[in-house]
Write the structure tokens for this entry.
Amino acid sequence: MSKVIKISRGLDIKLLGEAEKKVTQVSSDNFALKPPDFVDVFPKLFLKEGDEVKAGTPVFFNKYRENIIFTSPVSGKVTEIKRGAKRKMLEIRIESDGKMNYEDFGKDDPVSLSKEKIVEKLLKSGIWAYIRQRPYSVIANPKDEPKAIFISAFNSAPLSPDYDFILDEESQAFQAGLNALGKLTSGKIHLNINNGKTCSKTFLEAKGVQINRFAGPHPAGNIGVQIYNIDPINKGDIVWYINPQAVVTVGKLFLEGKYNASRIIALTGSEVIKPQYFKVIAGTLVTDLFKNNINKGNVRYISGNVLTGSKIEKDGYLGFYDDQITVIPEGDYYEFLGWSMPRINKFSFSRTFVSWLTPNKKYRLDTNLNGGQRAFVLTGEYEKVFPMNIYPMQLLKAIIVKDIDLMENLGIYEVDEEDFALCEFIDASKTEMQAIVREGLDYMRKEMM
Amino acid sequence: MKALRKYIDTIKPQFEKGGKFEKLHSTFEAFESFLFVPDKVTFKGSHVRDALDMKRAMTVVIIAVIPALLFGMWNVGFQHFISVGETVGFWDQFWCGFLKVLPLIIVSYVVGLGTEFVFAQIRGHEVNEGYLVTGMLIPLIVPPDIPLWMLAIAVIFAVIIGKEVFGGTGMNILNPALTARAFLFFAYPQDMSGDKVWISDKADAYSGATPLGDALVGNFDNFPSAADMFFGFIPGSVGETSFLAILIGAVILLFTGIASWKIMFSVFAGGYVMGLIFNLVGANAYMDIPAYYHLIMGGFAFGAVFMATDPVTASQTNKGKYIYGFLIGILAVLIRVVNPAYPEGMMLAILLMNVFAPLIDHYVIEANIKKRLKRIRIKV
């Protein structure tokens, strides 16, 4: 039994609206691929509006790296290419024909295949896009040789779905996926589980992996924190990571010979009347999930969790990498002398509010910024929720002034936007840290190429 | 409240760009966000945010200062009546001190915030809350009889040279409140030190020296008891005399987590250690006083709790905070005992370490960088 890695610095934000462990199948007619979901991808279309597609048919590719293609999750017809400012491609909408015809990629046993064959198959089916790399959190480059592949088998973000529950019956496909991924690296596959909580055989009995046990509050489930503790990224290192549901998708590609884009997502948040799990297909229109299930009022729909998710419309589509939808109230109201009031319904990491009296209370937090943007004033706070030996504020400042050497020295390769989400949450100066970190990573990537 | 909100919404356009009072936009915004937490929602990044903002953080500091402020008001009156030899009741003493201290607070806030508003407007940003704290601290670290015009000049100097030239709250190098005091100290020494200034409207015959003043000249005949210094029944700057009142503030700051316990603890540790070292040397009577006397007399405690912990001017790394605080303690006691010109060393010690804090941080961060580089080398 390996030793337990304890994460002591962090914060679990307790919110109302945890999903009940019940899965309902929902089949929508409308789907979309959203190019903005992918970092550093400039989409070039293979087809045009009105073309027929099957599940697994190529839709677009990345101009910067042409072998990386993105495929349709369902069979049907391309109905609309939605563009935004400067003709930026936002959504490729596909209407399902309800038949689910798949492109055939052929069944194989990954154990008997060569690395090249596996890479080729993953690229052709579009499933490659699920494999991402650190640093920079971009889609992995098939030519690279990662020093390890990381899979986090648990979420620690607020209200996030429980992979034990989701993947309990998928152990065969999960193992097939691991077998395929195992061919892609000469290093290890690290499967990171939650000590004492992870109980599914899918993870505990997985073969060909190193199982690492983690304990502690969020961000213990974040891949960045796990990499930092097991095999930190130095300059020049590349590590790949993939979501466990995507490992199952990879497995099914080999077992069934098709791109099976179905996944289980959690509908969560205080404004959902009956939060629960749904079985959907990647890129689904989310409207059907909300039918008679959302409280009245001005609410925000988030694809992902409250810390790192992206805002979507009520008639928006599920993000490519997301397996959670969160609905919380908007906070666009004024509060008289709010900063001086006791505010028992507000949550704070500091003890300047009374929330420390009720550590187990679940909150209904809204999107109010709770203050105005300021320069960095308080110090030593971010470190309390940032469990790496990195100076978060100094790194942010290095990014703001675009000092490449300093960014590198302070450890930018080891971090990602999501690692700063908690710092951003607790920040009294209301700095947009995730945006700053993304900017820094993009800048570094461009300079390094 | 709805009526007030409605009224603000109706007059708001006049303060926007192109409106009649465009030049007062920052001022309007400051008052509006003072009255109402704005309706701004998250736009990028985390969708929910902690309820703590700068206003809340600063409010906590002000609450923490209040015990020292109230005690200081009473003590100003108490010292005055002792010096003139009258015996009056508690409320008379408090009222006398209140009338002395209130004008200091008003001048400090009106002049300081006025300067801030002007700068916020010129720069086109929101008014920072930092001065709410600075404006309360300045009256507490000056002698009660300071002429108001001097205070006003010092405040303007502190806000402009101490803060705004660097870019405002969060960018300044020196603690603004101490900058004000240092300005007074060097520009008007006759009103800032000596035996005459510490008791308001003092009778001429009465000594009125602070314990520090006595100690420096080696006069330990009428030295106050440790209890008097702990509770604060001694002459001195308005807010600095009572260790107890400051301790209450310290508990508030530490409990809420607004101030760093690392700094506070290490300042006291540094002062105590230096006191012990002097005990060992023992070259004169001042060096022989119990080491803990240094912590309870003069402005040591006030500086440790409210000045050294200013997060902007202190060391910003956690390791650096220990070094920064410890050196403040050492230097403060060193200046007190060894330097013949300045009875109090706390102000200069903190200002000096403010200047050195970035250097301390630099070395702490270099160590972190080296550690990261070493990881690569081991691997290779």
